[in-house]
Structures are given as structure tokens and as C-alpha cells.
Design brief:
Layout lengths: L5 E5 L8 E5 L2 E7 L4 H14 L8 H6 L17
Antiparallel strand pairs: 1-2, 2-3
């Protein structure tokens, strides 16, 4: 299995909290400030090294249930990229 590519860039907006961390081109953590990006990149790298089968679920929703797209909070599952 190839090592996943972890990147970060502005995503869906032009405000302070419009940064996102991507794994293989798919957003995994959204709604971040630029200061939060290094933490989440390291966290994803560690998590993917331990559990390479993590799918395209929103990691922030899985961990904290505070994903900006909280339409799925009541079931505890992410329904977006």
C-alpha cells in the first residue's frame, strides 16, 4: 500500500477558519485556522501509520463531533468527503 499524501490548503472560503488538511486529495479535517494545520497534519500521519484503513470520513467529526458540517452529529457518522 502506498504512503498517503497529506497536504493542507485553503478550502471553501476566505476567512480565518477556511484551512483544511487533505489525504490523497480528499478533505479529512476542515474548518481549521492556519495555526491548527501542523497539528492535524502530524495527527493524521500518526493515525494513518497506525490504521492505514481509515476511510474518507471526517476525522474531526469522529473525534470531537464539532465538524462545521454537523448535519451528522446525532448519529456520530460523517457523510461528507
Amino acid at each position: 500500500m502506498a504512503k498517503p499524501k497529506i497536504t493542507a490548503r485553503k478550502h471553501m472560503g476566505d476567512d480565518l477558519y477556511s484551512w483544511a488538511v487533505f489525504v490523497d486529495g480528499r478533505p479529512r479535517v476542515t474548518g481549521l485556522s492556519k495555526r491548527e494545520v501542523p497539528y492535524w497534519k502530524a495527527r493524521l500521519a500518526k493515525d494513518l501509520a497506525e490504521k492505514p484503513a481509515l476511510g474518507g470520513r471526517c476525522l474531526r467529526a469522529e473525534l470531537f463531533r464539532d465538524c462545521p458540517r454537523n448535519h451528522h452529529w446525532y448519529r456520530g457518522e460523517a457523510t461528507h468527503g
